[in-house]
Structure formats: structure tokens, C-alpha cells
Write a structure and sequence with these properties.
The chain has 610 residues and is α+β, with helices and mostly antiparallel strands. Helix content is 32%, strand content 22%.
Length: 610
Amino acid sequence: MGTDPGPPAGGLRIGGYAPLREYAVIGDGRTAALVARDGSVDWLGLPDLDSPTVFGAVLDASRGGRFTLAPSVPYWAERRYLPGTNVLETTFSTAQGAVRVTDALTLHEAATLTPMRELLRRVDGLSGSVPLHWSVQPRFGYGTRRTRLARRAGVPVATAGRDALAVCAWDAGEPGYDRDAVSSHFELAEGRRALVAMPFAHQEPLVLPTRAECEARLDGTCATWRSWAHDRLCTGRWQQTVMRSLLALKLLVYAPSGAVAAAVTTSLPEHIGGERNWDYRFSWVRDSAFTLAAFLRLGCPAEAHAYFWWLMHASQLTHPDLNVLYRLDGGHRTPERTLPWEGYHRSAPVRIGNAAVSQVQLDTYGELLQTAWQYARATGHLDADVARRLAELADLICTTWQEPDAGIWEVRSPPRHFTQSKMMCWVGLDRAADLAERGMIPARHLPRWQTTRDQIRAFVESRCFSHRRNSYVRSAGSEELDAAVLLGNLYGYGGDDHYMRATINTLGGQLRHGPYVDRYSGEDGLRGSEGAFLACSFWLAESLARTGRLPQAIELMDELVGLANDVGLYSEEIDPTTGDFLGNLPQGLSHLALISAACAITAASKDTAR
């Protein structure tokens, strides 16, 4: 990662848009920013990850706002994350010399009471003398709020209502501003250093830092990330890849609550020019079991505890029903609306909020019970109120499993009896039964759970397996295929082992194209197509390992690891023809599926070696 300089960065954009592969992400546990290889910060929500943006050029190149910093002469760019950190380092090489830009959203010691939060961009001269230009173009509130620019103590400050940001520059030229931007030119020689800081505030004082404070915070941020990474438990063939995925996942953790967002962005398209554009800045119950498993496997107990208790709090607000997704603060209202933006490469609409929150997805009940089961096994304890609620969820599965639903893929076509949803209902009741037998949740209705679990298995085995396709199918009575049924294998659905092995073979032959795996065949109520869903490829690799086909699993996993961008990140999907990233990024589920597959294959390799 980080060794391929790629094409000249200045020539990558088309219509003002960089390829999605060109983005890295930085964050501070509250929010996150997308930084393109050409040095442009094209996405940043303030004050939080799910807040309205101040930079949104990735979704509207003319109206979204950005923070550019790059040589003002032709250049080549290569980049990396500093080892063990989420601090980005980009080296720009020109005919006149080279400079290195270090980007971070800084972290702060808990003991400090300052409201300071900031984006820092440090530039070091490596050789020769390089002319550079930078420009901060803030567009508060998704570009809908009027921005005022003025000076405070000689420092340019942009404000909109109770939001404010300052632009502090040292040895980076004298900042000037016009109606909508703060900018400057400067030249940096070998051995010299420049710094541009953008502190920001929301309903609190805007603190103007000193250069020494900024430098110390940047060094402290690097040290904090390295200390956190040092304590993680990443081993095996893909150790560095897993560590980078875990660091990416850490950027999706919303520190104030412990929630884990599905992605940093909204409305990056699954098909260029199409309507499959969704807001992923929420936390999905669907991802909960993978998330907790990753934290527990890789030595992140603090994150595991915080996430589990956030999930218990959020789900309590809608109990006994489960929302498909929740806000990062635990709220359950996510009304969907559209912005008057053109969208990435004119892929409209740009959506804020997510209407899938109101769908019925029965698989979520199984995933939450699987998550609680993992937590209980790891800690040996469940709170009495949580135990009662988990038993009530099992009761609810018994009364609802026979209903059709929207399924894990949140289709906007009529509800169906999706196979994966039924499998996860089985998993939920199986985990509830195990917890009851261990005395960890009330066992009063245990016989009913066991009886219903057997009924669900009978339904899946008789109605959801096609002998013609030799596979579990997408829904009862259909002949369509669905990679989501692989989750039955990963979560231990107790069906016919021969059926599952046959399904893995069929899906590998029908939905797989090289390393790419389609989500499903058949319609979903939306126009247009989509790319290959990366998580499905990792699920297939893990399924191969779990069914004794280790060489094939390793071969596929090696191919998938090679699909990451130059800094080890994955989006939601990839275009199999071009290799272009599609969908929101960095996509938590892609990285979670990678971690799960890598851990499973590593464990299988150790078992084989014994």
C-alpha cells in the first residue's frame, strides 16, 4: 500500500470529480474527512460524522465546497498512512522538487478541557523548491447556508449561524479571502516546513491555536494512534491488511456513543448516473454481529463494550420492534430527503436520511441475538433488563417469522419470504435457547423457541432450496440466487450440510466473476444496475474455508486483498469491468467482512497445520 504513485494527480479529475479509488479518509472519533490523492479535502461533516457538510465537493463539484492544497506546477503524487495510524502522508514530486503533506484530524487528551477540534495540514520541503497553492472553500449546511468571511485577531474566520471555522497559516503564504474562499500561494524549499490549521466549532467558542500547539497535537495524534494500534491482536497471512481494516473501522466509531457508522458518506452511487444512492451515516443492526466479533477477536474490549451498550440503548427505544438502522446518537428517526446537488458524476438524487428505517427486516432480530450471544460468551454476564428484552425478542421471532419482509438488501419491491431472513430467525432462536440453557436469559419460553426453531428449519429446507439450481435460493419458491444465504453458513444455521456445500458451489459458479460476487439475481424495485458487492466476495472466501476448501479460500482472499486502493481502503462495491470503486466509502461492512474472512482462514490454516 502507498507505493504506487499512479497517474499525474492533476489530470485525474473528470468534470471536477476524482475517481472514488483516489480517496483516503482521516478522522478523530467524531467526524471524518475524505482526502483525494490530489490533496483536496472533498468531504467533511461538522461537527459530527452525520452532520451537514462544510466540504461536500465529492457530491457537487461546483457547490459542495472543498479544501485544496497541492503544487501549482505539474506533479506526481504517492501516499500512505503513517504506520499504525490514521494520519495521511502524501508526497508530491515535481520537476522542481518534492514536498510531503501530512493530514490529520487531531486527537486531544481527555484531560484537556479545550473545545478545540481541528484539521491540520503540514507541508515539509523534501528537495528543491516547490510552488504551492491552497484554498479553503467552506459551504456550511450542505451549501445551503450563507457563509460570512471576516478576520479575528488577523485570522480569516468563516461563520454560518453558530458554526465557525478559522484558517491559520504559518509559512504558507499570507491568507487572503474573497466572497467565498480563503486562499494563498507560497513556495517551500528543502528543509522548510509550513502549516495550515483549520480549527472549527459548533455552538461553542472558536479557539485560535498557536503553531506550537498545532505541531504538538499532530505529533500527539500520531503517538495516540500508534499506541492504540500496538495493543491490537492482528496475526496471520494478512496481518497488515487486517490492521488497516481495523483502523478504518475505528474511524467509523462515533466516540461519544460507541456507535459504528456504516460509512463516512452519503449518496455515492452504486451505478454511475443511477438512482441507487443512499445515506450510510447510520448504524445498521445488520452489521452488529460482525462488528462485535471483530472488536472481540482483535483485542478491542473498550470498543466492544461501548458498541454493545449503545446497541442495547438504541434498540430499547423501539423495543420490542427493531429498527433496521439507528442514528449515531441512538435516535430512531431518519427521515429521507434530497439535496439540490447534482451528485457524483451527475448521479442523482443526493439523499439525506434513509427511508429503509421503516422497513421490516426479520434478519435483524437474529443478528442482534447473535451479537448478544457473542457478548455474553465473552463477558460471562448479561444485565437483567437486557436478558429480559432478549427473551422478548425471541418471543417476537416466534410470532413474526412467517411474515414476508424487505430482506437484508432493503429492496424497494414488495416484501417476500427471503431465505436469509428465515435463516437468521433460526439463528436468533438458537442463540436465545443456548443463552436460556446457560441461565443467562429467562427460560420460561424455551420449549416454544426450540419448537419454532425446528419449524423454521423445516420451512427453509423444504421451501427455500431449489434442486434445479442445487442451491438455497433468494426467497421461498423462487429460482433466483442470493449471496446473503452464505451468512447462514457463517452464523451456523443448522440446515443440511450438503445443501450448504452445494449452495457455495452454485453461488461461486453463477454469481462470481473472477474475485467479484454479485449480491443476487432478479429484480429489486429499482432501476439500473450495480457493481459487485465486496462483502459478498469475502463471505464466499470465508465459506470456502469453513467447508474445508482452504486453497480456494486463500486464492480468492489474496485476489480480494489486491482490490483495495493504494492506502488499503474499500468502498461498498467495485465495477468488475473497470475496477472503479462504487458506493459509499470507506464501507464498514466491506472491512468487517475482510476481517471475518481473514480470521476464519487463518484459524482454518492453523487447524490444518496441526
